[in-house]
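User: Can you predict the 3D structure of Quinolinate synthase? Sequence below.
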Amino acid sequence: MQTLFQMPHTPKVIAPPMVEEVLGADERATLIAHIKTMMAQQNAVLVAHYYTSADLQDLADATGGCVSDSLEMARFGHAHAASTILVAGVKFMGDTAKILNPEKRVLMPDLNANCSLDLACPADEFSAFCDQHPDRVVVVYANTSAAVKARADWVVTSGTAVKIVAHLHALGQKILWAPDKYLGDYVQRTTGADMLLWQGSCVVHEAFKAKELAAMKLAHPDAAVLVHPESPADVIALADVVGSTTQIIRAAQTMPNREFIVATDNGIFHKMHAAAPGKVFIEAPTAGVGATCKSCAHCPWMAMNGLRSLAHVLETGVNEILVDSATQQKAVLSIQRMLDFAAQH
Ligand code: 13P
Ligand code: SF4
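Assistant: Sure. Here are the predicted structure tokens for Quinolinate synthase:
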């Protein structure tokens, strides 16, 4: 049962323009060789998200790093012996790596690579909201700042949210959830938990349109629809599978369908093609009333990561993620709680 309440102001987030790195073959090869040498010299491992460029994903794979969802990025960086973790993704992923590994150096290609969910949840306003609801367990999505994680009882990712909230609900707990209203709504409907929802959203997933998706389904009657739960409820309602990026790739591998309509960032197609060769992946539509593009399913912050900027941070040591120790010591508890839960379930 969702409770009515006075919501604090949720900042409107404007996405930056999309600027993707374009490289010629020679420059690409030179950069990759240079980065590999520097990584070996600096005992560094590259952890990349599925939404980053194919170049970065391939480099992570080729150098013994990982390409994954945000849950596995956190697990992998934590378990790895490297003394430097290079995080190709967005700021909250770098923060999580640093919180879990305060003794390691964590570098990111571009510190401006943020996330509309993180930006929509300022720590001071969020903390005041929590203070108004002391009877609720505070559960925050991983797409939040270190300070917001420090205020939370639990961190969850898209791959763990339903199970963790169902667990808390079974214990009779009421929940304060932030920041994604769509994921929160999906988790609430799936678990039946009593949840107060912060009103943030993902600029990428929010753009998927149910009416156009229904029409696309009619045109591709044998296609399975795979949807990330940051999407609006009417888009989720049309899904055959709702899940994290890793769960979406797994569904493409294991389902018998040949065609898939995919409602998440199109950076994921690189791994989907590799994981399920011969299958056909179609971008879910983002066109519709008010839409400014036909297929804008790509995160402008993820696109800030590139080989040039990765080489630059290795050469100079800039863009190191730092989290003050008081925040780190609190935030690590809520992240570790999730990792322990995920390991047990
Ligand atoms: P995943 O954990 O499913 O990869 O999601 C992270 C994210 O930012 C999706 O937009
Ligand atoms: Fe944030 Fe959305 Fe980009 Fe994921 S795709 S990092 S949720 S803005």
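Residues 181 and 199 are 5 Å apart (CA to CA). Residues 90, 115-117, 143, 202-204, 230, 265, 299, 301-302 surround iron/sulfur cluster (ligand 2) (CB under 6 Å).
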